[in-house]
Amino acid sequence: MKLYARIISALLVVFMIISTVACANNDGKVNEKDSDSSTSEVSPKDDIFSDYPDVNYNGKDFIINLCGVDEKQFAVDKDEAKEITSYACYKRDLAVSERFGITIKTNVDTSDTRAGHNNFVKYVKSNDFLYHISGGDVWLFSIPLMQDVLIDLMQLENISYGEEWWYPEINDMQTINGKIFGLAGSMDASIVQYLSVVFFNMDLLQDFGYQVQDVYDMVYNMEWHLDKFDEIIKPMYKDSNQSGDRDAEDIYGVFCPRSIACDPFPISCGGSVLSIDSAGGFVIKVDDERNVRALEKLCNIFYQNTGSFSDIDYYAGGEFVSGKSTFLFGYTNLAFTSMRQMKTAYGMLPYPMLDAEQDGYHSLVVDGLSEWFCGKTLPLEEYDFVSLIMDAYAKYTYYNVLPVYFDEALKNRYSEDPQTAKMVDLINESASFDISAMFGLDLDMYYIFRYSIEENDTNLLKRVDRRRKAYNSYMKKVYALYE
Predict the structure, then answer these.
(1) How many Å apart are CA 289 and CA 9, to the nearest integer?
(2) Rounded to the nearest 5°, which phi and psi values hold at 215?
(3) Whole-angstrom Cα distance, residue 168 to residue 155?
(4) Would 282 disulfide with which of 45, 340, 359, 475, CB 3.0-4.6 Å?
(5) In this predicted model, what pLDDT tens digit does every residue of 320-352 receive, in sequence order?
(6) How far is CA 380 from CA 121, 383, 385, in A?
(7) Is the pLDDT of residue 28 over 50?
(8) Could you read off the pLDDT of 66-91 as tens digits, one per residue?
(9) CA triplet 265, 215, 242: central angle to 5 degrees?
(10) Closest Cα to residue 184, out of 169, 196, 167?
(11) Of the ranges 90-104, 232-246, 324-338, which one carries the lowest mean pLDDT score?
């Protein structure tokens, strides 16, 4: 499933971040050039609004409520738009405001993301109309959904459903009986920040006897699966502190992943967690045979393989950045954040398949994806206004903001790696979403692999059976909202 075709050429460069050593000064420090917005050479698409009606709302406020969504991407003040990414967001807000004669404002809920969703529910139930649109992490979407305070967004006629800036592959999954209460789309950049990937340390890989091209060829030849991963990390251990004990100071093939890094495994292994059948009903898939086999293989890798460090008290991402592991299971936002501290070259691969017979690679869009919704207190006379601005905002972001995020990740940095570019293309083509993420807060179904791996518990059937009655009861309540 290709989620983001339009800016794939820009997406490719995110992971072309090669060794900081090549860009170091004589004192060994990285030459970090200023990323001031004035240095940006991103060529904007300038016909974004040509298909929209010529309307002027005479300064009317368009208010966006942010429940944990990155506030730095919205209503950016010109004086604060010093980074290339924030400047692109500022230009977007300016363009939308001038084209439609509106004023973009935000409400940033300063409480935690869960409380922000609860506050949204309270204001709707109080019959207050405060915000035109709200956004938050998809795993918290069940808070307003289950309180039945959302409008069916199919009523917003100016939204271009099916267009690429409203990620149709994801929204089709969220549409039940012709209704959809939350939208995934390019109102922000979360789609490029939360896609599952495997990072690898090129230097360590070669230290353990592999060439970088070897792992790329495994992927191309459909040999990148859990058994192969198990095999290649087995000899990847070095007692770097010469203590004679296996501890966190040593070098390994992989540190046992935890939390969000475990969530993609059911999907990457060719399975799913929750699906919808042809009649529109929910079908629990998390305990399918593929997932049972996948969990057994994963626990064997992370707890029995000599190339794995299994103590989950250590953050695998930090250990990877510090050069203590060859591989890291993670997601794309790490390329924008902690990976910038890498002192050695790294590349990127898709999550491994379950086995060589699998139909292909599958990369999960994890639960940090933003979900956008409107409360029932939104007046009917506001529907056309809200849907028009939402659509224009998302379309501009898709074409003119998201590419800048990629450019900023590479800007003034490191040489390109065309093989890594191909890997990103492959990952993008295989991007997938699981509808269980929408109910992450209320059900542990979406997170069942993280709990099982962290506890080294391979009895998936027993774990699911203990919860099956609660799962079915909950899904009946969800389905009732769409009838």
Answers:
(1) 37
(2) -75, -35
(3) 17
(4) 475
(5) 999 999 999 999 888 878 887 888 888 889 999
(6) 19, 5, 10
(7) no
(8) 998 888 889 888 888 888 888 999 99
(9) 90
(10) 167
(11) 324-338
Residues 391/164, Cβ–Cβ less than 8 Å: no
- For range 150-178, the mean pLDDT: 95
Q: What DSSP assignment string belongs to 422-483? A: HHHHHHHHTEE--GGGGGTTT-SSTTHHHHHHHTT---HHHHHHHHHHHHHHHHHHHHHHT-
Question: Residue 87: which of 459, 406, 405 has the closest Cα?
Answer: 405
Tokens 């004679």 identify what position?
244
Q: Is the CB of residue 370 less than 8 Å from the CB of residue 450?
A: no
Say which residue the tokens 């929910």 belong to.
Answer: 282
Helix axis angle for 418-429 and 212-220, nearest 10°, is 30
pTM: 0.87
CA distances from 220 to 332, 349, 361, 363 (A): 21, 11, 10, 16
Which 8-state DSSP code applies to residue 350? Answer: P
Q: Where are the alpha helices (DSSP H) in 280-382?
A: 289-304, 316-321, 333-336
Structure tokens at 276: 């919808």
